[in-house]
Design goal:
It contains no helices and 12 strands. By secondary structure, it is mostly beta strands.
């Protein structure tokens, strides 16, 4: 066994790729070709027999270095239609499996509108590189108004009074009309 020139295999992780699709030098054969090699493995069993008419096969461990796969960010289908309540944390916005916010505890602004936030993607951190520098849009909505004080005039003997207060988040208005006192 010490005289066997053991191959050192290097591949990039490919989902579903089995050992059987990875070529070995003449005389070698995988013991279980159905195994999907992963990053951080300790090698996989193979048999070696340079000439079956003269030798018995020897089982050895063949080192297989599996590099993490890189996802092309252009191929990602970015989530859309994301919305959240003003003032909540970014983590309140649910993302599809594999996506994560860069700063999940960041508070959303207390102002309606569409804002951009950083995210990353990695469905399998063991076998894939993390795709960083993704920008996702979140529509901030107003769920509970935060009204300021009443502004306007009160009714007098001949004129109706009208007071308005405005939500600082969405600009929504509430109005009270007081009839003239007479």
């Amino acid at each position: 066994v010490s005289e066997i020139d053991i191959p050192n295999i290097e591949v990039t992780y490919t989902r579903g790729q089995r050992l059987s699709s990875i070529a070995l030098p003449k005389g070698f054969a995988w013991v279980d070709g159905s195994i999907v090699p992963v990053v951080g493995n300790n090698g996989y069993s193979a048999t070696y027999n340079p000439d079956s008419s003269k030798y018995n096969p020897v089982t050895i461990t063949v080192p297989v270095t599996v590099k993490k796969a890189v996802v092309d960010s252009a191929s990602l289908s970015l989530p859309t239609g994301l919305s959240a309540v003003a003032g909540y944390e970014l983590s309140s916005v649910a993302l599809p499996n594999g996506y994560a916010w860069d700063k999940p505890t960041e508070k959303l602004p207390k102002k309606v509108g569409t804002y951009s936030y950083g995210a990353s993607y990695c469905l399998d951190e063991v076998n894939y590189e993390v795709v960083e520098d993704i920008t996702l849009s979140v529509e901030v909505v107003c769920k509970t108004h935060e009204f300021g004080g009443w502004q306007g005039s009160h009714a007098d003997c001949t004129n109706d009074g009208e007071q308005v207060r405005i939500c600082s988040i969405c600009g929504g208005r509430e109005k009270i009309v007081e009839p003239a006192i007479g």
